[in-house]
């Protein structure tokens, strides 16, 4: 990103640093030295001074190009926007071109997959549509072995922190898997832009017939996993994503706890952030899902694995089996609820 800034500056482009965290890296500081830096705003939070991008100052300066590091960063409490990508949207709306950075593990659609693969729960995420709307996506690729050598040489973290990182998140197997995900995600972005070009330029390729992927969610935590799985299926099929919640009939509805209501809101908020069409229905869950899927020509359905016992299934029937019987023309994906050991990762600094 900084090298690109110098290239543009040498050609006469007005470039400023909106926010870049050096992490005490000598090479990073060296590349920033000859660029105009907009001073960050300082926020006092719980006795600690946090540095955030001064979005208003960048807008007032109004350069042609602003550099904004760590796109998935969560702003300090009390900031105008919760996430840095929302600050970037404000800069874009103000007519400023933005060059930013992002690690593959911070894409929301891959969050549960990253956790299963690495055992690390990444908290800093952004909706995939933020990347999809970028005019250009460039993959900065490096072999895992080369990246590990950079870490050992102290080019990324101090020696003690590097050792901890190499023993936890940045293992060879994790880095290899993350690299594969990054290559696949970049290839998908290229394919989407190629499709748009071919359709717009009438190069002989027709648009998708319009697959519709529907995800049924309730208050359970697995809802977020289902939404991310549905998003990946919809993205692969170039289709639309629908996220549907059915409130049970009044007579059968049990009182939800405050925590269940909070989890349901969080699930539906995630669906909205990922660009899904969110629908709330009322009635018998299986009947409403089946009716809505039929009326809206749904081709794929994603639901969670049932949580009740085999005895309950024998006595009262299974939602999954009922749906499978009533919707023979729809592909149904039943996702298991896998809870395992995890490590929490909230460091949004790029490797």
Number of helices: 14
Radius of gyration: 23 Å
Instruction: Write down how many β-strands occur, each being a DSSP E stretch of 2 or more residues.
Output: 13
Beta content comes to 15-25%
How many strands, which pairing sense, and closed or not: the largest β-sheet? 5 strands, parallel
What is the highest CATH level, the class of the domain at 212-335? Alpha Beta
Task: List SSEs in N-to-C order.
Answer: HEHEEEHEHEHEHHHHEHEHEHEHHEE
Cα-to-Cα separation, first versus last residue: 14 Å
Envelope shape: globular
Descriptive report:
With 351 residues, the protein is of the alpha/beta class. Among the domains are: 1-101, 3-Layer(aba) Sandwich (Rossmann fold); 212-335, HUPs (Rossmann fold), CATH 3.40.50.620. It is 43% helix and 17% strand. It is built from 14 helices and 13 strands. It has helices at residues 2-10, 26-32, 55-61, 84-93, 111-118, 128-132, 144-152, 159-167, 172-200, 222-237, 258-273, 285-295, 310-316, 319-326, and strands at 15-19, 36-37, 41-45, 48-52, 65-68, 97-100, 120-122, 212-216, 240-247, 277-282, 300-304, 331-335, 343-345. It has a five-stranded parallel beta sheet, with helices on both faces. Strand 3 (41-45) and strand 4 form a beta hairpin. The longest helix is centred in the middle third of the chain and has 29 residues, at 172-200. It is globular. The relative contact order is 0.10.
């Amino acid at each position: 990103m900084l090298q690109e800034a110098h290239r543009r500056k040498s050609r006469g482009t007005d470039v400023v640093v909106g926010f870049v965290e050096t992490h005490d890296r000598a090479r990073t500081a060296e590349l920033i030295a000859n660029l105009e830096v907009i001073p960050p705003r300082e926020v006092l939070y719980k006795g600690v001074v946090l540095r955030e991008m001064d979005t208003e100052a960048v807008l007032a300066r109004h350069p042609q190009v602003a550099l904004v590091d760590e796109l998935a960063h969560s702003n300090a409490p009390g900031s105008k926007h919760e996430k840095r990508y929302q600050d970037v949207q404000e800069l874009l709306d103000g007519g400023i071109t933005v060059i930013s950075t992002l690690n593959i593990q911070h894409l929301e659609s891959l969050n549960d997959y990253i956790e299963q693969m690495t055992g690390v729960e990444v908290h800093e995420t952004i909706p995939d549509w933020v990347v999809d709307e970028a005019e250009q996506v460039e993959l900065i690729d490096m072999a895992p072995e080369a990246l590990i050598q950079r870490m050992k040489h102290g080019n990324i973290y101090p020696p003690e922190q590097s050792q901890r990182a190499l023993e936890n998140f940045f293992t060879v197997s994790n880095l290899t898997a993350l690299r594969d995900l990054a290559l696949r995600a970049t290839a998908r972005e290229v394919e989407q832009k190629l499709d748009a070009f071919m359709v717009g330029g009438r190069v002989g390729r027709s648009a998708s017939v319009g697959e519709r992927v529907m995800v049924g969610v309730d208050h359970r935590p697995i809802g977020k996993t289902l939404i991310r799985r549905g998003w990946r299926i919809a993205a692969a099929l170039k289709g639309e994503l629908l996220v549907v919640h059915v409130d049970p009939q009044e007579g059968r509805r049990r009182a939800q706890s405050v925590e269940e209501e909070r989890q349901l809101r969080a699930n539906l908020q995630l669906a909205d952030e990922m660009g899904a069409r969110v629908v709330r229905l009322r009635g018998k869950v299986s009947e409403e899902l089946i009716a809505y899927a039929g009326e809206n020509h749904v081709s794929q359905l994603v639901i969670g694995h049932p949580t009740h016992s085999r005895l309950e299934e024998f006595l009262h029937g299974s939602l999954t089996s009922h749906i499978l019987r009533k919707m023979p023309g729809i592909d149904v994906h039943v996702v298991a609820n896998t809870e395992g050991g995890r490590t929490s990762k909230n460091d949004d600094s790029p490797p």
